[in-house]
Each structure stands twice: as C-alpha cells, then as structure tokens.
Design a protein that fits this description.
It is a single chain. This protein is of the alpha/beta class. It has 17 helices and nine strands. The chain has a nine-stranded mixed β-sheet. The chain starts with a strand and ends with a helix.
Length: 343
C-alpha cells in the first residue's frame, strides 16, 4: 500500500532554520515561494537577468537574486525551471556552489530520471510534486487547505532527507491534503505517460478528430464545438468529483449505453498497443532524448505542430463562442498570467 503523510507526521522544525532558494517564478515557482514565505521559511527567488518575473516577485515581497547568487546563499535549492534548460543552468550556475549538507529539490523527476544532471554524492536529492497547477497550490493554501503532493528521495546524503522532504511539503501546504511517497522514476514515467495519452495528447487529438468528423459530415461547426469541446468540462468535473461511475450516474441512460458500447471501439487493441509503445519510449529514454534534441536544435518540429494546433478551426470557432459566455473567464487570470514566466 502507498505511504501517505499528513501534518501530524511531520516535524516542521527540520526546515525552520534552512535557507531556501526557489529557482524560477512560473506556475509552481511563485506558489512554492509565497507559500514558504507565509510559512515563515527563509526564502529567496533566483531568476535570470532581465526576467519579466523579477518585478512580480519583488512586488509580492520576495527577495530576488540571480540564480547563482540564490544558489550560493541557500542550502535547499529548488529547481523549478524548464526541464530542457535545467541541465545547462545547473552546470553553470548551481553546481559550483553546492556544499556538503545542501539539498537539491525538484517538482518533476525528468532530469534525475534520465541522468541529465551530475549531482554530487554529498547532497540530498529530493522531490515534492504538487498534483495541481501552481495557481491552485497557492489559492488553496491561502484558503487554509492544501493540494496533494508526491514526494521522493533519490539520494539521502544527510541521513534525514525524508524528514526534510516532508517538512518542505508541509511548508507549501501539501500535508494538509496528504503527501504520497513515490520514486523519481515512477513520478516521471507516469507523469509523462498521462500528459501524452489522456491529459493532453490523447484528449486534444480526440477533440480534433471528433470535431472534424462532424464538420466533414455537414454539421454546423458551432454545434460540433459544443458537443466535442464545451461539454467536456461538465463530464470532467463529474469524473473529478464522483469518479467515472458517478459521471455515468449523472448522465442519461442513452449517453451511458452509447459510451459503454462505443467507447471500447475507439480504445481497442490497436490503441492499447500504441499506449504500450508510448510507455516504452518513456521508459527506455527515447522520448527524453528526442525532446532534449528537439529543444537544442531550435524546436522547429515543436513550433510547427504548435502552430498547426493554434490554427485548427476548432480554435477560431471556440473563441467566437466563448465570447458569448463571459462567465467562463469572469474573475479568472489569463493563461499567460497563470503559467507565468520560468525565470
């Protein structure tokens, strides 16, 4: 059974006297930094020179330094910069300042799982990964709650890395909801698989294909959008709140019967075989190698695919229809504001 830790299981004093550097001030970075600050932890933010996030962090009452200065002044260094930039930043601006007793923290295991960082044997290597976007991590903390987290220790040089990891998770609010123990490998592989299949890749591809099928058959694009995109929120919210069985309970019998009989025709043996191939590419490192190479070579394929997605007819139709529903965006930050810069 999975080990789950709560506030009662944690000794916050383990981190009380530590100096923490949050590197990056994007979605997770701003939430970690502000939650730590409000928990009474000595925290500073490390950002690249000229970063647009400097002003935002300073306006939030945080101390801002260069990445190297932040790493040098701290003994808990939290890597919240993009996966593909982390190795270079680490080698040039962090590794030279590491000392015995320091701890390197991550919110995603990518660079450790695929051995992109050469971490010395005298530092703790730990992970606290909130299972929610940064704006939610911050908002729920302010409201007195917390977002569940995953935690892992890859290297316990100090002999107390687990205790420090739990104390960090507690300081950002994770133990209020529960912190699940995992490994860097399990977190990385399952996270990438979920993103590529259900959460982002598979969902977007299914939306596009379903929308195109209806439009190509002569149905109005606006009606196709409502059926293939707009109503997704209703279904996902039901699953989020009550599980798949709860969702089926809430929809019509016609919808449930159609789903139970036609869904398996979409997710068939061929689809399952492709899921296995995708997982194999994650586990053997070929996806990681492909993505790192793509980034180093200018991301031409990534940018082409991203542009094609933005130009898909479903995006234009959606923008027009969402303008009819101002309540969707009322009181919410824009995507840019939520994701923020990465430092």
């Amino acid at each position: 059974m999975v080990d789950i830790y709560y506030t009662k299981d944690v000794d916050r004093s383990v981190i009380a006297d530590r100096k923490v550097a949050i590197l990056g001030y994007g979605s997770q970075g701003h939430a970690h930094a502000l939650n730590l600050k409000d928990s009474g932890i000595d925290v500073r933010v490390g950002l690249r020179g000229g970063s647009s996030s400097v002003e935002k962090a300073e306006n939030a009452g945080l101390t801002v330094k260069s990445i190297a200065e932040a790493a040098d002044s701290a003994d808990v260094i939290v890597m919240l910069i993009p996966d593909t930039e982390m190795a270079e930043v680490y080698t040039e601006q962090i590794a030279p300042y590491l000392s015995k007793g320091d701890a390197l923290f991550f919110a995603h295991g990518f660079n450790i799982r695929y051995k992109l960082l050469d971490t010395p044997d005298f530092v703790d290597v730990c992970m606290v990964a909130p299972k929610g976007p940064g704006h939610l991590v911050r908002r729920v903390y302010v409201e007195g709650g917390g977002v569940p987290c995953l935690m892992a220790v890859e290297q316990d040089a100090s002999g107390s890395a687990k205790e420090l990891t739990l104390a960090y998770a507690d300081a950002i609010g994770g133990t209020r909801a529960g912190v699940l123990a995992t490994t860097f490998t399990e977190e990385t592989e399952t996270d990438l698989f979920g993103e590529q299949t259900v959460l982002c890749g598979g969902l977007a591809a299914l939306v596009h294909a379903s929308f195109e099928t209806l439009v190509d058959a002569g149905y109005q694009p606006e009606v196709a959008y409502f059926e293939c995109v707009h109503e997704l929120k209703l279904i996902v919210d039901l699953i989020y709140e009550e599980g798949i069985s709860g969702m089926y309970y809430s929809v019509s019998d016609t919808a449930e019967y159609g789903a139970l009989t036609r869904g398996p025709r979409l997710i068939n043996d061929e689809t399952r075989a492709e899921l296995d191939r995708i997982l194999s590419e994650i586990r053997d490192g070929s996806f990681a190698s492909e993505w790192v190479a793509e980034s180093r070579e200018g991301r031409s394929n990534f940018l082409r695919l991203e542009s094609a997605g933005r130009d898909h007819p479903v995006e234009n139709i959606g923008a027009d229809l969402r303008a009819m529903m101002p309540w969707i965006s009322a009181g919410k930050a824009s995507v840019a504001e939520v994701s923020g810069g990465q430092g």
